[in-house]
Specification:
This protein has 240 residues and is α+β, with helices and mostly antiparallel strands. The protein binds flavin-adenine dinucleotide.
Length: 240
């Protein structure tokens, strides 16, 4: 899958117990913390939470907003970061800005780094646009576009050597420079991102990002992820 990477920097260690505890506090007379030794285990908490909060479209999503996960996302094109950053609720970002970095662009200009490590171009293949027009992105076109990226790296290097700042010279490079970022979200906002961006009409690269997010979601909150996968993933079941 290209060079794309998604790694977990940190995550609530017991997400399904936390959701269960929040749900349990809704109807408990006592202070639930004091019962923590009697909490159901992670798997059982997940099953109970699905039964009482989610099954049959109950839509009681509040308790699912408590567990947090922090991802490090790498090597995706700028356009994917832009799409993701439109989501604001329960989600936070720190993104390479191009004010402080640029060494890898110069390394590509010098031939020390593969230009494909710095810029993303779609693979050769058949594509369509939003109006239904079909086209083939050929190996020749892709090579010409790589040459274009390399030429832009050289112009960037030249302007930096002439004294321009990185934030000024970054305007010269092609749009889909690869950009690393940190994204944190809660279990609900993670599912919201997947609702909107894993579906078939979302852009190719953000669908790939969702595939990688799903790998971590399954490992982090297995029962919740299994419910999500069975009832919502890829079904374009959008929240309001
Ligand atoms: C297929 C697709 C194509 C898109 N194309 C474009 C495009 O061409 N240009 C462009 O600029 N954007 C585009 N967007 C982004 C889109 O317009 C939204 O900005 C983006 O999806 C974030 O909205 P959200 O509902 O996910 O909000 P989030 O911030 O993730 O919020 C989650 C939920 O909280 C609620 N909420 C959040 N903020 C508000 C608010 N201010 N008022 C009321 N309720 C709120 C809503 O219920 C919302 O669904 C596209 C999105 C998709 C999925």
């Amino acid at each position: 899958m290209d060079r794309f990477r998604v790694e977990v920097l940190s995550a609530t260690p017991n997400p399904q117990q936390v959701i269960w505890a929040a749900m349990h506090q809704d109807y408990s007379e006592g202070f639930v913390y004091d019962d923590r030794d009697r909490f159901p285990d992670e798997r059982k908490a997940g099953e109970l939470m699905i039964k009482h909060l989610l099954k049959g479209d109950r839509g009681h999503y509040g308790p699912i907003e408590h567990p947090q996960i922090v991802f490090n996302v790498g090597y995706f094109p700028h356009s994917t970061m832009q799409q993701l950053r439109t989501h604001r609720t329960g989600i936070s970002f720190d993104v390479q800005s191009g004010r402080y970095t640029g060494e890898r662009i110069i390394a590509a200009a010098k031939g020390e780094l593969d230009v494909e490590a710095v810029f993303y171009l779609r693979p050769v293949g058949d594509y369509g646009n939003r109006q239904g027009k079909k086209y083939f992105y050929s190996p020749e076109q892709r090579q010409e576009d790589l040459d274009w990226c390399l030429a832009a790296c050289k112009r960037y290097q030249q302007r930096i050597e002439e004294g321009l700042s990185e934030e000024h010279a970054r305007g010269l490079i092609p749009f889909d420079v690869r950009q690393h970022f940190v994204m944190s979200c809660n279990a609900r906002s993670l599912m919201h991102i997947l609702d909107l961006r894993a579906k078939a009409d979302a852009q190719l690269e953000i669908q790939k990002l969702c595939d990688l997010l799903m790998v971590h979601f399954r490992a982090w909150a297995p029962e919740l992820a299994a419910w999500y996968e069975a009832s919502r993933l890829g079904k374009a079941r959008l929240s309001p």
